[in-house]
Amino acid sequence: MFNIRHYIYDLLVEQGVSETTAEYLNMLALLLALMVIAFIVDFITKRLLWRFSAGIAKRTKSSFDDILIQNKLPRNVAHIIPLILLIEFVPQVFSDFDYAEDIIEKTLKVIAILLTLRILRSFFHSIRDYLKTLPRYKDKPIHSYLQVFMIFAWLLGIFSIFAIMTGITFWKFATSLGAASAIIVLVFKDSILGFVASIQVAVNDMVRIGDWISFEKFGADGDVIEITLATVKVQNWDKTITTIPTYALISDSFKNWRGMSNSGGRRIKRSVIIKASSIKFLDDSDVKRFKNIELVSSYLESRSNEIKKYNIDNEIDKSVLINGRNLTNFGVFRKYLQNYMENHSAINKDMTLMVRQLEPTPQGIPMEIYAFSSDIRWQNYEYIMGDIFDHVLASVTFFDLEIFEYPTNFNLKSN
């Protein structure tokens, strides 16, 4: 390099070019030649490294090497050789320009740090993408942990760049930052809180990717699609995206529906309000008529015989219907719904199933169905629940009962 540098300089001086101009032209010519050589070396290195990596990826069964190629790790590594070439020879190109040589050396060192960070980012992204392909880690917040490593890497990189630019040693520069630690904590407050929160979320298994969560404070109701160091992204059922701070998951209350999904049943808890004025004791003719309803015929047969025997044995005066023991249309209807739910094919029989009477209200007596559907998918769940209550609403009149409704203009005109 030195011979070539002197040769070009001497040639220019012999042609009558001034020494100062010859120095600048010589420097530009050498710099251009070095940049061309570095570009060619970079191109050849990238091609060779890419072919070598692709060949290994084809011969191996693991997908990790394919992911490394997809995240351009071999391409980034290939830049190391031309960068070493520039670091070695650029200072010699600027040896006659002391003021520029120091700037160029520092610039190349900064580029080397940035290239190292870029290689680390490609490597961490490859780890993230590979772990996502494994069922064991598919729902884990891997992205959060890798972000932590990248934050530390960027901090070290930024400290090193400042140390290079200022001429202060790295450790001395890092020590001098102790006084500014309060500012650093303030600037990275969300990241620190998010880091702590993401660890707690992962350790306590509070949220996984794919979980359905409801978070009223942030208006979120849908599936978790991403967990990062600072935020959790939820895709709502209307396909909008809600972003929640990660630390909010441990500082506020939210609902995770994973337990319902894993249980194999989705709860149905709904009631109809029966008008109190339509509830009555059943006489023999009513019992006889209700026996035609298959789901309660055997119940009515055994129950009415039991009640009749009790009343006879205790010499109850049945000339007045209220005396002794009696069946009511409300009780028979409750038994009918219980049998109907127990025979429904879409109800999970291994989970709680009951039809119960709730406390009377000013509107009437609520009759509640409490059960679990065997299909937890939302659309199917709504269909099952709708099918059940279609039947409930239509069957009420067969038991001489009425469902409460607020009066309308039509009802008032009819009366």
Main attributes of the structure:
about 425 residues; alpha+beta; SH3 type barrels; Alpha-Beta Plaits; 3 domains; five-stranded antiparallel beta sheet; three-stranded antiparallel beta sheet; 17 helices; about 10% strand
What does this protein look like?
With about 425 residues, the protein is an alpha+beta fold. It has three domains: about 1-135, no CATH class; about 140-145 and about 170-265, SH3 type barrels (Roll), CATH 2.30.30; about 265-415, 2-Layer Sandwich (Alpha-Beta Plaits). The protein contains 17 helices and eight strands. A five-stranded antiparallel β-sheet has the order 4-3-2-1-5. Strands 6-8-7 form a three-stranded antiparallel β-sheet. The termini are far apart.
